[in-house]
Design goal:
Radius of gyration: 19 Å
CATH architecture: 4-Layer Sandwich
Helix content: 10-25%
Shape: globular
Largest sheet: 6 strands, mixed
Number of domains: 1
Number of strands: 14
Structural class: alpha/beta
Strand content: 25-35%
Strand order of the largest sheet: 5-4-3-2-1-14
CATH class: Alpha Beta
CATH superfamily: Carbon-nitrogen hydrolase
Length: 296
């Protein structure tokens, strides 16, 4: 018998999400991977069910040569790091999204992996390559997958992908409840010191205009001339941060209990249903909607 005989709203599908803001050391894969294990374990001990880590967190980001990437890159699945994350996900009963350089047939990709208590679930390859990404990596060729899991429907974007509204909308139209963003935002000198990056604002707008949760995990620290500005955050479908933005300099883990069913409440007013109100008579599959598989 259920103890509560009354309907309780807002508890349909609660999932505690953690975003890990951390540093890593260029080329120190073993140390970096162990640090991810420690941070994931800490988040799980605090009740997190979904843990998001930054982009390229096993290796560092600013490479000098192709040989440096070759030393860091792994097969996905099948690589040693993914095996370790799979084992940890089983042990801690969590889902993990983390960025890692991928090798496939002699080609390299800036990728992110999703693993859970039952093992490998899927991967995403960064589609929009930033600056010297274009020197080292192939453009992502897996599209925008949405992974259906027991805790919700999960999509992944990586860093510069955020700047392309089509990415968010296609993920939303394919039913994503949450978009996880492993990222290495860079500090821009043209912005005020208290801002450093516009990315958190973009995450807020994307969450609101697509009725979804967004969890961004950024790095902090300095690497080969680049400063990473932190500001990790978790945003709900209303478009306002539920956790963060975090510090611009300190490591941290942010938490928020996301009721994933809130991402499925498309009726904003009596007369407005977000996705129904789209004017597809004027914008059609040429803008990416050919991938749409929305469940409503």
């Amino acid at each position: 018998m259920y103890k509560n005989k009354e309907k309780t709203y807002g508890q349909e599908q609660p999932v505690k999400v953690a975003v890990v803001q951390m540093t890593c050391e260029m080329g120190e894969k073993e140390k970096n991977v162990q640090k991810t294990i420690d941070r994931i374990s800490e988040a799980a001990s605090n009740g997190a069910k979904l843990v998001v880590l930054p982009e390229m967190i096993t290796s560092g980001y600013i490479f000098n040569t192709r040989d440096e990437i070759a030393e860091m890159a792994e097969r996905i699945p099948g690589g040693d790091t993914v095996h370790k994350w799979e084992a940890l996900a089983r042990e801690k009963d969590v889902y993990i999204v983390a960025g890692i350089p991928e090798e496939d047939g002699g080609k390299f990709y800036n990728s992110a992996v999703l693993v859970g208590p039952d093992g490998f679930i899927g991967k995403f390859r960064k589609m929009h390559l930033w600056d010297e990404d274009k020197v080292w990596y192939e453009p992502g060729d897996l599209g925008i997958p949405v992974f259906h899991t027991p805790i919700g429907r999960i999509a992944i974007l990586i860093c510069y992908d955020m700047w392309f509204f089509e990415m968010w909308r296609i993920a939303a139209m394919k039913g994503a409840d949450i978009v996880c963003v492993p990222t290495n935002w860079v500090k821009l000198k043209t912005l005020p010191e208290n801002v450093q990056t516009v990315a958190p604002y973009m995450a807020m707008v994307a969450a609101n205009t697509n009725c979804m949760f967004v969890a961004c995990a950024d790095r902090v620290g300095y690497e080969r001339g680049i400063t990473f500005p932190g500001r990790s955050l978790i945003v709900g479908p209303v478009g306002f941060p539920s956790a963060g933005p975090a510090s611009g300099t300190e490591e941290d883990i942010l938490y928020h209990v996301c009721n994933m069913s809130d991402a499925r409440k498309y009726n904003w007013t009596t007369h407005n249903v977000l996705f129904r109100d789209r004017r597809t008579d004027y914008y059609d599959s040429m803008l990416g909607s050919a991938e749409e598989k929305h469940p409503f």
